[in-house]
Specification:
Layout: E1 2-10, E2 24-29, E3 42-46, E4 55-59, H1 62-69, E5 79-83
Parallel strand pairs: 3-5
Antiparallel strand pairs: 1-2, 1-4, 2-3, 4-5
Length: 93
């Protein structure tokens, strides 16, 4: 799983049928502080009604995306798994 900030929406007039009716978000991986960018942006299908500015957990693996979205044959690569309320990065004792 990857901690990400939703930075935008993706809009397309021509798309694969598996994306019809789905929201595709632009994700920016971030450090545990929730602000510092970490790597390149990527697209993910939304499964939790996340929006721009939300801190989320995403999976960037096709099998996970297909299992969460309930279709084994669609060419899905990444999915938003949950909205993060708080990150506690304090060291364990």
């Amino acid at each position: 799983m990857i901690l990400c900030r939703v930075v935008g929406n993706s809009v397309s007039t021509v798309q694969h049928p598996c994306y019809i009716g789905r929201t595709v978000l632009v994700m920016q991986p971030v450090e545990v502080d929730g602000r510092t960018p970490l790597g390149d942006e990527f697209l993910a299908v939304d499964s939790v009604q996340a929006g721009v500015g939300d801190l989320v957990l995403a999976a960037r693996e096709g099998n996970t995306a297909r299992q969460i979205l309930g279709n084994d044959e669609d060419p899905l690569h990444a999915v938003v798994l949950g909205i993060v309320d708080q990150v506690d990065a304090s060291p364990r004792r």
